[in-house]
Amino acid sequence: MNDTYLELVNSGFTKQIAKKLGLPRPARLRRTDPRRVDDPLVPGPVVVVGEGPDADAVATGLLAWDLDVRRTVAVGTRVGAIVLVLTDIVDPTQASQRVLATAGMLRDLAPSGRVVTLSRAASAEDDPAVAAARAGVEGLTRSLGKELRAGATANGLVVADGVALEVPAVLGALRFFLSARSAFVDGQLLPVDGAGAAPQDWTRPLEGRVAVVTGAARGIGAAIARVLTRDGARVIGVDVPAAGDSLSAVMNEVRGVALQLDITADDAAERVIEVARARFGRLDLVVHNAGITRDKLLANMTPERWDSVIAVNIAAQLRMNEALLAAEDLAPDGLRIVSLASTSGIAGNRGQTNYGYSKAAVIGATQALAPRLARAGGTANAVAPGFIETEMTARIPAVTRQVARRLNSLQQGGQPVDVAEAISFLASPQAAGVNGQVLRVCGQNMVGR
Ligand code: NAI
Fold this sequence. Notes:
Blueprint: H1 4-8, H2 12-21, E1 46-49, H3 52-63, E2 69-70, E3 79-85, H4 96-103, E4 109-120, H5 128-147, E5 153-159, H6 168-178, E6 189-192, E7 210-214, H7 219-230, E8 234-239, H8 244-254, E9 257-260, H9 268-279, E10 285-288, H10 303-326, E11 336-340, H11 344-347, H12 353-374, E12 379-385, H13 391-394, H14 398-406, H15 416-427, E13 438-441
Parallel strand pairs: 1-2, 1-3, 3-4, 4-5, 5-6, 7-8, 7-10, 8-9, 10-11, 11-12, 12-13
């Protein structure tokens, strides 16, 4: 789906007019292309701001990827990313020097540049000054996300106490936030614990894994199939028989297996397991992407609209999860589950009580599954997209759609590939320490947290 306004304010004459009139000018984001893996990780030098062993560990870790890592730069030097290390501060007054050093580089941040904060989780057991120093980073990161321009983003990693910064879990998450894979993730703080191993090849972290993706015939699901395949996985794509032709086309493209199946069918889980067992002998990842909307104000809600949304968006995946947990031999390294939530399930959305219920339910189920899966080395996470340009959002009336697109820090809708990249990251070996989380892919939508 195209955003004509974005194209206009980025081309020739109309760009000048938009500038003169002071209209919002969403930038073209630096994005990944599922067919290519050789793009540079970061568009310029990465400056690690901080002192002491934590900052040293991060700088050393980044050097291993052949990045141009600096600790300071002269004013006027174009910077690709800034990593602001605040894990060691124990009082809010200690942040200022590093924050102000970061401030001095922001004007030199490249288009689609990155600021990533690293901090520790604040807890009620902390000394109040320590908790204040840690918690403050969240407000800093979210506010900075709203200030950056030209497609640049600010995100944070909240590292569990006692976890060293050089472990693959931290570096892997940092890599995701630095790269174009996180193009539409903005203003997010992701908690990370120490679990997770470095993949043998950082460009193919899912090598040897088998994934099932529901709703794979189009939109976000098709992008997920492409990105997982690029990252090394073999994919079983599921969609309703009515979407059989498109499903075959996507699966032919990625050399995956097409499974025509309504996920609300009683035997849906068994059929998925049967195909995975017969074709690959394993199933490491399930991406619950199939979803529907049947919008109506609650006062006008019909049983059909309410029940169909609940059946597809949450009930079907609960049944499939139980069946997959029972077939644990299929996931020798632990089952990964990633479910599509939505910002509507976090902040609510007029006309979407049914959808909002189902997507908040996805988050509840994810959090309850996380400890169960962790026992066998698996994880359950949710990805909450904001406004993504797909056939689902193309059905929104034109004016509402234009407004909805601009209501985030990047002033545009995301692309299906943006959601797919977040899912592939959560499925990767280095993300084993991200569990029970909701990662928003919403350009820092101005709703919810
Ligand atoms: P879409 O409507 O373009 O694609 C959904 C796919 O799921 C379709 O191919 C459809 O045939 C399939 N599907 C529907 N019911 C099914 C069933 N019972 N069994 C098997 N397959 C079924 O949707 P889109 O935009 O790609 O969304 C994908 C997911 O992302 C959904 O869960 C949606 O709720 C979520 N999402 C989308 C957002 C957006 O802005 N597009 C925002 C937030 C969440």
